[in-house]
Every structure is written in structure tokens, then in C-alpha cells.
Amino acid sequence: MRNYKNSRDYGCWLNYDLLPPAFLAKYEQQFPTMAVPRGMALTQSITAELRRGLGGLVGQVPNLVEREDEAAVALRLEDAAGSPEGFKLTVRAGEGLLKVLISSPGEQGLLYGTFAFLRALQLGEVEPGWELQESPRSPLRLINHWDNLDGSIERGYAGQSIFFKDNHLVEDLDRVRDYARLMASIGINGIAINNVNVHREETHLIAAKAEMSRTISCIFQDYGIRLFLSVNFASPLEFGLDSADPLDPQVQSWWKERTRQLYAEVPNLGGFLVKADSENRPGPFTYGRTQAQGANMLAEALEPFGGVLIWRCFVYNCQQDWRDTTTDRARAAYDHFKPLDGQFRDNVVLQIKNGPMDFQVREPVSPLFGGLERTNHLLELQITQEYTGQQRHLCYLVPQWKEILEFDTYARGPGSTVARIVTGSVFPLRWTGLAAVTNVGSDPNWTGHTLAQANLYGYGRLAWNPELSAEDITREWATLTLGHDGDVVDTVSQMLLGSWETYENYTVPLGIGWMCNPGHHYGPNPEGYEYSKWGTYHKADHLAIGVDRSVQGGTGFAGQYHLENAQMYETVETCPEELLLFFHRIPYTHVLKSGKTLIQHIYDTHFLGVEQVEEMLAKWQGLADKVDPETFAHVLERLQGQLVDAKEWRDVINTFFYRLSHIPDAHNRKIYP
Amino acid sequence: MRNYKNSRDYGCWLNYDLLPPAFLAKYEQQFPTMAVPRGMALTQSITAELRRGLGGLVGQVPNLVEREDEAAVALRLEDAAGSPEGFKLTVRAGEGLLKVLISSPGEQGLLYGTFAFLRALQLGEVEPGWELQESPRSPLRLINHWDNLDGSIERGYAGQSIFFKDNHLVEDLDRVRDYARLMASIGINGIAINNVNVHREETHLIAAKAEMSRTISCIFQDYGIRLFLSVNFASPLEFGLDSADPLDPQVQSWWKERTRQLYAEVPNLGGFLVKADSENRPGPFTYGRTQAQGANMLAEALEPFGGVLIWRCFVYNCQQDWRDTTTDRARAAYDHFKPLDGQFRDNVVLQIKNGPMDFQVREPVSPLFGGLERTNHLLELQITQEYTGQQRHLCYLVPQWKEILEFDTYARGPGSTVARIVTGSVFPLRWTGLAAVTNVGSDPNWTGHTLAQANLYGYGRLAWNPELSAEDITREWATLTLGHDGDVVDTVSQMLLGSWETYENYTVPLGIGWMCNPGHHYGPNPEGYEYSKWGTYHKADHLAIGVDRSVQGGTGFAGQYHLENAQMYETVETCPEELLLFFHRIPYTHVLKSGKTLIQHIYDTHFLGVEQVEEMLAKWQGLADKVDPETFAHVLERLQGQLVDAKEWRDVINTFFYRLSHIPDAHNRKIYP
Fold first, then answer.
1. What Å distances lie between residue A93 and A50, A96, A472, A624, CA to CA?
2. What is the DSSP letter of A531?
3. pLDDT in tens, B462-506
4. Model-level pTM greater than 0.80?
5. How many whole angstroms separate alpha carbon B131 and alpha carbon B527?
6. Is the separation of the CB atoms in B87 and B112 below 8 Å?
7. How far is A527 from chain B (nearest CA, A)?
8. Which 8-state DSSP code applies to residue B519?
């Protein structure tokens, strides 16, 4: 048992707790020495990590030696082809000692190899003859912070910003360094530190406040992470110009000059991230320009410095009239960006949310995946649980992300999965990868709910390699974080892997989405968005619910997919049932493949969801003596709160549908009238 | 036409514009002199008002003379019995001039007589032989500000506070003086300047920030207005004590000493206003004490200085579970306070909201009126239009208030109206009267919507004399503010007098309440409060809507009234239909007295309400050449916005009920499915 409050590691997967006896028997005294190439930018970080890791795990801090052949753990910078981010890790039996060699054409590969070695050690995989050769599947593995300079975090549920406080940097930059270690350990190589909704103060991160950017970027640089900044498309207006028109030569010059000066101050800048023409943010539409013209202008400014311009596709009309049935928000991203495919500069990367709406518990995959063929793009996921319980509920999203990654777009025939698209295997694109909105904050355990760390960890692992299985990632995280007790790892893995389905069961059925409280998005409110301007309507009435998004008779959204999927989504019979209410309007009496009516399915899943939370709670209670008391009590409290709130969801949703339909539960359970 | 932007009067009923020719013919040169008793606290204010009023209205500033018999307008302080707030105003023909005499036993009566004279002059009532004898019907005629020291106003829709900005007083204290004039002109004699939700900064208005209270109170004093302060029941905790228990001798001593010091600094203090044990405010319940024990403790501290303690009865459980059908928020005020009747000290005054809920467009009268027999109490109204269109909609509330005042409680048999209760005619109570939450802010026209001034004016006039008719008050205000054009006065009066019914038509039917957006309370959201903790549920389902509040089978709220009303509200047949959904659960197919079903009534009133707004708009447009262009354009813009929002209300409410009931409109009008 460990009191992580006294540790810089805050109870997470870089704990480096002393290994259990069975492991120590194999590894103790095995790694007395290490050799790390000198003079690399990352030399110090790698050396420190090996000291810290081995010192913690096996109780022996290795001595640094000069010669590779004298070292138990040797790192070798190879003059070879291959990804500088990839590495090869070999283990052989030496003279009474294991000999570990980590080699890479790049120092970043050595850093990733170091973390991989320490992870493998904890998982007991390191033994003679074992080897591992890996390189990341895509060049961009990004984290987005929605942190504001005042320290608040938009959609943050784990305290305040770890970067900013009261419009200055935080004092505790050691924590930023630990954060960089955490991110590097899972392969993250770019972090946007400020909110995509760039307000007045944040606009100055590219100018008067560039020193703040520089300080953080220097820490990141030690871990191979490039700093990205969210920028305000209307910045020129803030700096005295009278336009932000991307075709205005003055505006173009302004951005070029500002970017040049910024790179002089912050050489480790990866580029800019932009939310434009979205939810009242400024953008090229203001000047009658296309999204491509807006993005290209900024990309041109970044190009001389190797920077990339990441441009979000979250563009839709957020002033819709609910009475207007001709507009379908789900269509918006594709309608805006598909016609521009091929018009973007080489260093523009579009960032596309996984679904057409906004990180709901269940959505179809955005048809832009498979739709865009000639434009760099990223898959954007949301680690922070905005709509999925806000880290008060356990909702492990790796299974959701796996479904998204494995979705076959048929863009180049069968097998054109999202995973293959965002790793550049379907279309030959320069920049691909993943980005995700993080769940990290100033809470001691980083993520509010300790088990929500698994989402952060899992995202990084999937960004590194989308083919990793949810099960493997889950067990990895549980072992690294909570230790080697098989019962703990099994139980926590079960809890995590079932939690998304559980959350879906007691919240929003069959892809209908929303039904949460407006604004903060916590808790049930079935009609909370029904008459709003956000384009999010379920149109439930006495007989049926849902919006027809088919081509024949609907909004046509289904037609944005390639033929195989378009046909699948088009009809009620072929549409996957978990998305039935996303694509179709369905009577409550419609009989599902289970033989149940829609309404009975809704009632059943809501009763089931609460029972599943009760089971999760019981499972966790069974671990009382097996995890440290503080973590146990903390997770217990969250699960107890989740149970209360799951019942609220169950009762509100069931009552809502009962009041509408007046169809009773077949099993006569309690539905409040 | 007048550009009120250049005037200190901001376009309101103290404009004192030059009278029209027909009036000038009567009054010009008639008032060359005035005599005002010297040495009174109000001498300066009265003199200045006569100068300003006559100078403006008839174009001649009167000279001050010593002797009453030399003055055209003479004020006389009489050594007589009678209310020092009352006055007698006589007009007789002198030697070629009118002779006006205003007399009173008190200087405050002279001030009110002065304003009455100037008003009568504008209304053309001043002529030989005319006389007016008035005194206010109750001793407390109060205004409550919900202003915070940072300048914000809770439920304010007319800009920022006229008192506070950034935790200091505003710079423009002349405007505060004009405000005091406005209030005195309608007979207001007490103003609570800060929000009943007393936050940290505001807690210090009784201590370190007493200088701010003093400054405002000095201005008020010139107009016979006493300053009230909202205080934090938990103040002792803020000042270092470890309790705020009203029975703790240390707490009692603390309040006595603080109050003593406060009166030394602010002698014009009328007393304290307290919101305790309400919506998360601290109160005696924290210490297991009754509301009476809490109030009496503060009242005892005020007693040596003649101060009164005003204690709000807005006490209810704001953490209700919507599944709990045994709790009825409507019952709360009566259940809490009726058993304490007679236990309060003589200088405690309970302040009771007009209805049992919270200032909805339609509620029954609180059963505490007629219920409390031995406790001083006030009727609390809401001038600021929190639930009635927030000064973006025209909703003139004087007709609502008249209904409330004329409501017969039967407390002492027929005729025991609210008006008679709050003027002390039913029960012999020392302190009675009215209080109202104001709609005033820093907007140039005081109230955001210029026509919303009529609510402020009307409140004061009713507080002075609840028997004034809505029609008379309305025409008075329109004439004083918009001038003597008969068409303008007629049209504006019609618009005002019909606007409450119109607002009710397109918003919330038959007393069901709420159905607005949570938090800010603007715009429709039929289920916005349905699953909340606020105790405000309509429980609409496929067949019916409403909560049964009868004694037989309901929550029993109807039984809180005296027998005549209890019986009336008890049954569907006898319940007034405008309150049908407040007291009963009614099927949509229930046939109303009109012969229409409930659902058809809802549809019809909602279509009608929008048509009525269209008519209001047309009426106003007909005045284009008859009111000053700025006022015309401003009101036009508000009415146009009201029309858009009325259509939104109509469509949302109709759609909501159609989706639930699936009963079509008998007239086949457009209801969005």
C-alpha cells in the first residue's frame, strides 16, 4: 500500500512501485548499469527516467557507464533508416546478468523505448530472447487542453489547469514536467495547451505572453513533445488591424510576421490549432471566404518553420430554429468540408470529431472519414467525459474508441477502417493521427476519478497503435497503476471494460443523444435540448421518437457515407440497432431483433444499467483490502455517487417515456408516473 | 418631442415637460410665488421640487416668499392630529391668481402633497374649489433592490445597479437623488438597497462598509425615505464568532452591539430585511431554532432605535426529489409560519410573496394572507419581470396586483380582502404595507423597457392606496410620461392594461406555472423544471396535466385557506378556471365552461396571445408621429422582439402538448409536429 500523496507520481501508471517478490526474483540486481548516448536533447530525460524507474521497481539505481558493452541497459542511437520515433528492444542473457539493448535511429525512439522497457519490466515480459520492435503508426499523436489562462478548464472535471493560474503560469512547473513524462510514456508528441475557444487573454499567447508558451515548450521539448497553441482567427483585429480576412495581404503579412517572431521565441512550436466559424467563434465565413482559404492562410505562415495548421471541422449552425426540419446538424461537417477536399495546403491537417454531432455516448462515425481523400486529417476523440459522466461516473471509453477505429468506411473497398485511414494506410497523406481533449487537471490523481486515468492512458496507447486491444490496454493500465494482484487487475479490468455499455444503458438509448442538462451537460433532462438552437432534437411524441436521417424521406445524412454504409444506415431493417434512433424515427411499439419493443428495450436497459452499477460497486467493495485505502475510499465514493445518479437517469428517462407513451413496463417495475 | 437623454429625468413621470396650450391657458403666470416652512429636514427638497416642477410645467420658477398669504403656493405645517404622511390640498381663487394650500401635520406629508400638486397640475385637476385630502393607507411602502455590490442585479433587466459598482458606490450620486425623488413622488418611504441573497461583500454593509449605507441613506433622508439593509443571518460567523445561533447570548450581544454602532453611523436606518433558511441561505434552522426565534433576536437588536425587522416567508425545501409526491412546495410558507402566528415581537414584520410559489404569471394568493392574524406582515410583489418577460416583453402587472389586493380571504367574513389586511383594517397590526422587488437599473430610462416604468409607478400608487383603479393609475402614468395627446394616452393605456392577459395567453396556461428555462427564467422550456429539485412539477403526461392540491386526494394545499376559499378551490367544478391547473390534475379532454376542451383552450389561447401581440405592435405603430422618435423606436424594437418570442412560446407550448396528447387543433392551425 502506497500513500501517493507523498509522491511526485500522484498514483498513476508511472508509480514505479517496488515489484512484487516473484518479479524481484527475476530482476533484482539485474540492472546495475546503463549506457545512454551523450549529447542528445533527451539524454538527461532518458537517464533520469531509467534511474527513477529501476530505482523504484527493482530497488537499485543503475550507474551510468560509458561503454555500451559494460551496461546492463544500453541505449544506442543507430545511423539507420526507419522512423526516428521507433525503437527496437532486445533482451539477451549476459554474464549472469540480463543485457537489454534499446536502439533507434532517433533519440525520441530511445525515449519511447525506455518507457516501453520499464513498462515491460512491470508486466514481467523482460526475459532473455524477448524482443520488441515498434514504431508509432501515425506522425501526430496529440493532446488538446481546453485550459484558459485564468486557470479554469472548459469541460474540465479534475480541478484547475496544471499550466495556468490567474493569467500566469502555475508555480509548480515540476508538475508540468511530470505531466510531460506521463504523456511521453504513452507516445504523445504534441500538446495544445490552451482552449480552442480562444478568449482575449489567450489571444496573447502568440505575442506578449509568448514567454509563457516558451517556458512550457522547453519542458515539453525534454520529452519530445511539441507545443501547439490554439489561436484566435480574429487575432489581427485584437492587434489593431481592421480585418482578419484571409485574402487580405495585410492580414497575411501580419500572420507571417507574428509567426516568425513566435518561432524565434518558441522554436519547439508544432503549429496552431484553430476552431473557426464554430459556436460563435470568428472565422473566414465572416469575410465570405471558405474554410480552405482561412486554413491555408495560416498554414502558409507556419510553413517556413515546419509547423502544421490544425483546423477543426466542428462547423455547424448553432442558431438553428427547432421548427426548421430542413437543416440537420449531423450533415454539417461533411457538407462544409467534403467539397473542399484537395484545396488545402500540405501542412493543413483537419481535425474531425469521431461523430457527426458532439462526443455523445453513441454516435455513428463521421462520414468525413472515408470522405476526405486528399486532405490531411486527424481523428478527434474526447477523453474528458463531458457527456459521459464527467469523471463522477466510471465510463471507460477505450471500447468506444476501438469501435470507431475499427469502423469500415469502405472508402477503398472493404478494410478501409478509420484506424487505417488515420495511420495513412488508405490514402497517402503526409499528416495523419489522433487528437483528443484531455481529462487532466490539478487534482492530485490528475483526472478527478482515479479510474479515469485509464482513458488517458488508453488514448495514448491507441494513438501509438490503434490495433492494440481494449483488453490488453486495460490490463496494462491496471497493473501499472494498481499493482500485480490478479484479483485487482481482473476486477478493475472487468469494471472498466463494461462501464461504457453500462453508462449507455442507464442514460441515452440507441444513439438518440443529448437528453442531458443544457450548458453543463451533467444529469438527465430529456427535453433539455429539444427546443434549443443547437440543432439537437429527438422529437419524441406519444407514438415515436427520432429523426429520419435516411436519403429516402429523411435528411439525407445517411447518404454521406460510402455505398455499403449508406445502404446499411438507410433502412430500419439494416441499420445497426445501437444507432437506430440516430438514423430513424421509430415507434415505441417497433419490435427489435431481441423480440422486445423499443419501449420495453428502453425500460429494460435502464433498469439493467442501474443493476450493473450496483454490481460494479460490489466488485469494488470486494477489493477493500487489496488497493491502498485512499484510492479505495475515493473510488468507492465516486461509485456510490454514480449509483445515485444512475437511478436518477433511470427514473427520469423511464418516466419521460412512460408519460409520453403510456405503455407500462411489461415487468411492472417501479416507473414514477 | 423631447430628447430625454439630455435631461436628468431620463424620460419618466417626473419629466415636467411644458404643459400643452389648453393647460397653460389655465395655469400660466398663476404660480409666481411659494411659501415653504423653514428649517424642516425636507424644506430644501420641497422647494427645489416646486421650482423644478413649476418651472418645467408652466415655464415660471416661483419665488420663495416668507408669508403664506403672499404665496400662490403655500405649504403649512399644522400642529394637528393625523398622519404626518398625510396632506390636505386646497385650491381657491385668489386675487386674479389661484391660491394653493398644502397642509400636513408632518413635513413628509408636505412632500407628498407637493408631488400630488404637481401631478394634479399635469392632469388638469387644479382649479378653484378643488381639494384633495389623502394619507397613505399603510405605514410601510417599501422597495427591495436585489443589487449586489459588484454592480450586478439579481433578476435585473435594466442594466447595472444605480448604487454600486465594483464594490464601491457609483460616482453619479445625482442619479441616486433623482431616484429618491422618483420614489418619494409615488409615496415610497423605505428602500432596501441590497440583494436579499447577501454575499460576502454585502455582509459588510452593516460594518466596514457602513459608510456606503450612510451616504445613500443621507440622500434618501432628504426625501423621507428610510434605508433598509438586507443582512446575512450568519453575519456573526463572518465576524469571528463560532455560531449564529439566535439563542446564543454571545450572538445576541454581537447583533445588539453591531446594530447600535450601525445606527450611530446611519441614523436614517429603517431596519433589516432577511432571507433566512431559503434557497441555501443560512437561518435559524441551522441551530434547530424556529423562524420566530431567529427573527425576534434581530428585532430585539433593532428595537431601541425604532427599527423594524422584515423577515421573508419564502422558506421551502429547494432540494426536493421530483419522485417525492408527499411534499408540496405550495404548502411551505403557510406550514412554516402559520403555527408561529403570535410568537413574533412587535417590530417583526413578515414579508409574504403574493403567491405560494414564486411570482408566476398566475398563482392563487398566499393563504398566509388571512391566515396570519397576530403577526405584522407585508405583501411582497415583484416589479422586476423575472417570470413575465424580463422587460423585453410588455407585461403590465397592475391588473395582476389589483386582483391580488381584491382577493377576499374571508378571514373575518366577507370583505376581508388582501388590501384591507395589508392596510391594517382586518387585524389590528402595528406594521402593515407592501414591499416589491424593483425593476430599476442604470439604463437611461430606469427600467429597460420604457413602458415597464408603469409597473414601478403603479406599484407605488397602489402601495399608497390599494383602492386606486388600474385604469386610473395607467392613464396617470401615460399622461405624466408621454404627454397629453389623447390618442397616445388611450392607446398606451389599452396596451398596458391588456398586456398581462396577453402574456399569460401565449405562455403558461391556467396557473400551471414554470415551463420556462431554468436559471435565467426567460423563454419557454415546458419540462425545464420537471425533474429538478425546486419543487415545481406539472407532471404532464399523455392524458392529463397538473398536481392535485385538494384536501380530498391531493396535497391538501387548498385546505390552507379559510372555508369559503378552501371549498372553492377543492373541486374542479368550483375552482376558478384561470387557476384550474394549479389546484387540479385535469385531462386534456376536460370540457371548460367555455365549452372547449382543455387542450383546445391551450391551443386557442396560444394562437390568440400572438395575435394580441401583433395588435399591440400595430397600435404602437399608429403612434409613430405622436411620441418622441427615440421612445417610439425603442418600444417598437422591444415589441418586435416580443412578437418573435411570443411565437416561440406559442409554438413550443403547442408542440409540447400536441406531442404528448396527439390531439389535433380543431381549427387545423400550424402546430409543429
1. 20, 7, 27, 40
2. T
3. 999 999 999 999 999 999 999 999 999 999 999 999 999 999 999
4. yes
5. 55
6. yes
7. 6
8. T
Cα gap A181→A7, rounded to integer Å: 14
Backbone angles phi, psi at A345, to 5 degrees: -65, 165
* A131 flagged as catalytic: no
Query: Are residues B596 and B465 in contact, defined by beta-carbon separation less than 8 angstroms?
Result: no
Residues in chain B, overall count: 673
Min Cα separation B613/chain A (Å): 21
Say how far apart CA A47 and CA A36 lie, in whole Å.
Answer: 7
Cα separation values, A280 from A291, A319, B596, Å: 15, 9, 45
Q: What CA–CA distance (Å, rounded) separates B348 from B376? A: 7
Contacts of B323 in chain A (CB under 8 A): 651, 672
Contact assessment for residue A147 and residue A230, using Cβ atoms and an 8 Å cutoff: no
Facing A323 at nearest CB: one of B525, B658, B672? B672
Identify the active-site residue in A300, A358, A380, A408: A358
What residues of chain A lie within 8 A of the CB of B673, using their CB? 539, 541
CA angle B422, B425, B428 (to 5 degrees): 90
Instruction: State how far the Cα of B13 lies from the Cα of B17, in Å rounded to an integer.
Output: 10
Residue of A nearest to B545 (CA): A659
* Residues from A in contact with B at Cβ < 8 Å: 322-323, 524-528, 530-531, 539-543, 648, 651-652, 655, 658-662, 672-673
Interface predicted TM-score of the whole assembly (ipTM), two decimals: 0.92
Q: What are the distances in angstroms from CA A366 to CA A155, A279, A407, A408?
A: 22, 19, 10, 12
Whole-angstrom distance, CA of residue A349 vs CA of residue A615? 43
Q: Which DSSP state fits A524?
A: B
Closest CB from A531, A662, A673 relative to B525: A531
Q: Confirm if A273 and A322 have CB atoms less than 8 A apart.
A: no
Q: Which phi and psi angles does B445 have, rounded to 5°? A: -90, 15
Number of Cα atoms under 13 Å in the Cβ half of residue A304: 12
Chain A residue with minimum CA distance to B649? A531
Q: Which residues contact A386 (CB under 8 A, 6 or more apart)?
A: A155, A359, A521
**pLDDT confidence band for A304 (50 / 70 / 90):** very high
CB contact under 8 A, A525 and B524: no
Confidence bin at B280 (pLDDT 50/70/90): confident
Say if the Cβ atoms of B531 and A659 lie within 8 Å. Answer: no
Report which DSSP code applies to B284.
G
- Mean pLDDT of the region B334-343: 98
- Closest C-alpha to A164, from A261, A229, A236: A229
- Nearest-angstrom CA–CA distance, B44 and B137: 26
Using one digit for the tens of pLDDT, what is the confidence trace for A171-198?
Answer: 999 999 999 999 999 999 999 999 999 9
Q: Are A367 and A139 in contact (CB under 8 A)?
A: no
The 8-class DSSP code of residue A61 comes to P
Are A89 and A117 a contacting pair, CB within 8 Å? yes
Measured distance CA(A200)–CA(A206) in Å, rounded: 12
Catalogue all structural domains in chain B, each as residue range(s) with its CATH number: 4-134 (3.30.379.10), 140-468 (3.20.20.80), 506-547+585-661 (3.90.1330.10)
**Strand partners for A451:** none
Cα–Cα distance, B548 to B586 (Å, whole number): 9
* Residue A516: DSSP 8-state: B
Determine if residue A290 is left, alpha or beta; phi over 0 gives left, psi from -120 to 50 gives alpha, anything else beta: beta
Model confidence band, residue B10 (pLDDT cutoffs 50, 70, 90): low
Interface test with B, best of A325, A651, A655, A659 (most B CBs within 10 A): A659
**Of A439, A454, A456, A459, nearest in space to A386 by CA:** A439
3-class SS of residue B98: strand
| Cβ contact B526–A527 (<8 Å) | yes
